[in-house]
Amino acid sequence: MLDRRRARHNVQLSTLTVVLCCAALSVTRPRAAQPLWETGTFSILGYDPATGEVGGAVQSRVFNAGNGVLWAEANVGVVATQAIVDVGYGPRALELLRSGRAPADIIKAVLDADPDPEPMRWAKAGRQFAVMNAKGEYAAHTGPKATAWAGHRSGKFCTAQGNILAGEAVVANMVDAFEKTSGHLSMRLVAALEGGQAGGGDTRGQQSAALVIVKKCAGVWLHNDVVLRLQVDDNPEPIKELRRLVEKWGGPKRPVSQQGCS
Question: What's 172's domain CATH number?
Answer without folding.
Answer: 3.60.20.10
